[in-house]
From TrEMBL:
This is Putative ABC transporter substrate-binding protein. Keywords: Signal. PROSITE patterns: TAT (PS51318). Pfam families: SBP_bac_3. The keyword S-adenosyl-L-methionine does not apply. The keyword Flavoprotein does not apply. Gene3D superfamilies: Periplasmic binding protein-like II (3.40.190.10). CDD domains: PBP2_peptides_like. InterPro entries: Solute-binding_3/MltF_N, TAT_signal.
């Protein structure tokens, strides 16, 4: 009976093709992941608006973008809280499939992990106390500045402000506490985080914005199928407006999608213009 039913099904499909009828394509199998059917994603709990915890659950711009990627790939998603310093080693060692973090691509990091197509272009600002403001990033020379441990911003800051003394902290919260307590003169971090800190803490101010480089998701070198699938999903989500909608949702109008990202993904919907 089963053989006859299969034969009838194949015959019907063949008849449909012969008649010019559209036959639905079989869905592609999900890419290989550490846990079958699940995309395991490292994330930071204190990096608003990129990734953080609200009502006991992970959320934020890149958390929601990872959820959209997983849905495109036919995967469930599991978020695992970790420090920034542990993210890339964890991806390299197959503890995480990827990370909900716009990781700046550097030659050293490319030796450790593979990277997807771009998801942004890094920008950063130097946050300081209003009573002892550091107006420009190069003004940090000779001062002590807090940066998250392992950040690619460390060599950038040393290049812009020779003579700066860098103090590394495990996370943004620890860096912020050190700044407020007067243990450091400034805090150098990504644009979105810097803007959020200044908005939440009236006693803080931020410097001009500096461009830091291309940002991409990390993937283990030993999993090219996942990398290829994520690249495809990212491209589709850029072009269908999902990325733009999430960017607008999680960022103030003054924070703009970099022009280069529109060039990377022709046809990508543009962010609404900022009001004057």
């Amino acid at each position: 009976m089963t053989t006859r039913r299969n034969a009838l099904g194949l015959a019907a499909m063949a008849a449909g093709l012969a008649a010019g009828m559209a036959v639905p394509a079989l869905a592609a199998a999900p890419p290989p992941t550490i846990t079958r059917g699940v995309l395991t994603v490292a994330y930071r709990t204190d990096d608003k608006p990129v990734s953080f915890i609200a009502d006991g659950k992970p959320t934020g711009f890149l958390v929601e973008f990872e959820e959209a990627i997983a849905a495109k790939l036919g995967l469930k998603v599991r978020f695992v809280a970790t420090s920034f310093a542990s993210m890339l080693p964890g991806v390299r060692n197959h503890i995480y499939d990827t990370a909900a973090f716009a990781t700046l691509v550097t030659p050293a990091r490319q030796k450790a992990v593979a990277f997807t197509t771009p998801i942004g272009y890094g920008q950063a600002r130097l946050v300081s106390r209003s009573g002892a403001a550091i107006g420009k990033v190069d003004g940090a020379s000779g001062k002590t500045v807090a940066i998250t441990q392992g950040s690619a911003l460390i060599p950038l800051l040393r290049h812009i402000a020779p003579g700066v003394k860098v103090r590394e902290f495990p996370n943004i919260a620890a860096s912020l506490n050190a700044l407020i307590a007067g243990q450091v003169n400034g805090l150098f971090t990504g644009l979105a985080t810097a803007n959020a800190l200044v908005k939440k803490h009236p006693g803080l101010v931020a410097s001009q914005t500096v461009t830091t480089g291309v940002a991409e998701y990390p993937v283990a070198k030993g999993n090219p199928k996942l990398l290829k699938a994520m690249d495809r999903a990212i491209g589709e989500l850029m072009k269908d407006g999902t990325y733009t909608k999430l960017f607008v949702k999680w960022n103030p109008p003054a924070v703009r999608i970099p022009d280069q990202l529109y060039k990377d993904y022709p046809g990508m919907p543009h962010q609404p213009p900022a009001k004057a």
